[in-house]
Amino acid sequence: MVTEEDIKRVRKSPADLEERIDQLEKQKEYLQGQCRKAGKAIVDLEFQKGGLIKEIDRLSEENSNLTTLLKGQKNGSD
């Protein structure tokens, strides 16, 4: 069953459609800007992640070296 509201929606004037197109274009531009921001944030986080992985590896190796050193001192003092 077709309602009055359905008929009104179909009979929109060209001005209404132009306004809707304008709104959608503005929304598209806004969303593109937000996607660019998100992309930049992702790149920055990936860069930070790489630095943190290197730091963890460095600290892990340092910890391993200290553990070996302490074991050597412990065995040497026996």
Structure overview:
The protein starts with a helix and ends with a helix. It has 2 helices and no strands. It is 91% helix and 0% strand. The chain has one domain. The mean pLDDT is 91.
Write the topology of this structure.
Elements: H1 4-10, H2 14-77
Fill in the keyword field for this structure.
78 residues, 0% strand
Quick structural gist:
With 78 residues, the chain is mostly helical. The protein has helices spanning 4-10, 14-77.
How many strands appear in the DSSP assignment?
0
The residue fraction in helices comes out at over 70%
What is the chain-wise order of helices and strands? HH
Query: What is the residue-mean pLDDT, rounded to a whole number?
Result: 91
Shape: rod-shaped
Structural class: mainly alpha
Strand content: under 5%
Count the domains: 1
**Poorly predicted runs of 5 or more residues:** none
Distance between the termini: 96 Å
Most strands sheet: none
Query: What is the alpha-carbon Rg in Å?
Result: 32 Å
**Tally of helical runs:** 2
